[in-house]
Design brief:
This protein has ten helices and three strands. Strands 1-2-3 form a three-stranded mixed sheet. Helix 1 (3-29) packs antiparallel against helix 4 and helix 2 runs parallel beside helix 6. By secondary structure, it is mainly alpha-helical. It has helices spanning 3-29, 32-58, 73-101, 109-137, 140-169, 174-198, 208-219, 254-271, 284-291, 295-304; strands spanning 227-236, 239-248, 275-283. It folds into two domains: 3-201, Alpha-lytic protease prodomain-like; 208-304, Cation efflux protein, cytoplasmic domain (Alpha-Beta Plaits, 2-Layer Sandwich), CATH 3.30.70.1350.
Length: 305
């Protein structure tokens, strides 16, 4: 079992325990904010299960039906998780409004307060570890899962503080108000997650910082090539695909040009994780005739010395 799958399983186990705990206390106390938190954790569990299977599938090697691999399953997973969070938050708001209109007495507030802070602590530890692994493995599915749990840290704290205020002030309407605030926070989380997860499905480019790294590596060899152009990049889950055209002097040996391309590819793949690079070689004479460039004459003379 690889690291991504291992930590996705950890998220499933922690969410399962917290759901049971929150649901029991929520029903016992009659607190809509605690019940809303149990629903939020249920969405987290669903997301964790989706992430678990998506990281397993995304790690499968390319095959005849999927020549570019299975990486985009992680983005599909992230979109589904975002939609689940969105639906859950709307449901929480509806239930909280009902509680404002038809208030009910809340009992055992102290117990609910304790459970919320335990939940917040557990999710903080798990989300911190998940986020670290997600960054190291460049996994959008694990990052989405970590984002779920990170939101749960804040929402659990919010509910806990709300229960504490009710315990002090005896104002029961604070419970559904806190639940609505939690739901609004979750809605924001859903929108952010959908943006991150959906973009690679449209083959958007990799980040500007990563493109700057690529340009820096290629420019190290500018003394031996005429130009490079048509740099294109895209993401598919944890994988990054890069292709570009590199223009060499006409008289340069194919092997020499190929060796330089190999060095550039190796440099990029070492600097950026999970990267596939494709370089198309062009003749400087052909390229410069169409672009008006005169540099190839100088480079050819220098190369032949």
């Amino acid at each position: 079992m690889n690291r991504k799958t291992k930590f996705a399983r950890l998220s499933i186990l922690s969410n399962s325990v917290l759901i049971i705990l929150k649901l029991i206390v929520g029903i016992t106390t009659g607190s809509v904010s605690i019940i809303s938190e149990s629903i939020h954790s249920t969405m987290d569990l669903t997301a964790a299960i989706i992430a678990f299977f998506s990281v397993r599938i995304s790690d499968k090697p390319a095959d005849e039906m999927h020549p570019y691999g299975h990486g985009k399953i992680e983005n599909v997973s992230g979109v589904i998780e975002g939609l689940l969070i969105f639906v859950a938050s709307i449901w929480i708001i509806i239930e909280a409004i009902k509680k404002i209109i038809y208030p009910e007495e809340i009992v055992s507030i102290g117990l609910g307060f304790i459970v919320m802070f335990i939940s917040s602590g557990v999710n903080f530890l798990v989300s911190k570890k998940l986020y670290k692994v997600a960054k190291e493995e460049d996994s959008i599915a694990l990052e989405a899962d970590a984002l779920h749990l990170k939101a749960d840290v804040y929402t659990s704290l919010g509910v806990g503080v709300g229960l504490l205020l009710m315990l002090i002030t005896k104002l029961s309407f604070l419970d559904p108000v806190v639940a609505i605030l939690v739901a609004i926070f979750i809605l924001k989380e859903a929108v952010e997650l959908l943006k991150v997860a959906f973009a690679p499905l449209m083959d958007v480019k990799i980040s500007d910082e990563e493109i700057e790294i690529i340009n820096g590596i290629i420019s190290k060899y500018k003394s031996v090539y005429c130009d490079f152009h048509d740099l294109r990049t895209r993401r598919a889950g944890p994988n990054k695909y890069i292709d570009l055209h590199l223009v060499f002097p006409e008289d340069m040996a194919i092997k020499s040009a190929h060796d330089i391309c190999d060095e550039i590819e190796e440099g990029i793949e070492q600097s950026l994780k999970n990267t596939n690079v494709m370089i198309h070689i062009e003749s400087c004479t052909h390229y410069c005739r169409n672009s008006g460039c005169k540099k190839f004459e100088i480079l050819t003379k220098e190369w032949l010395k």
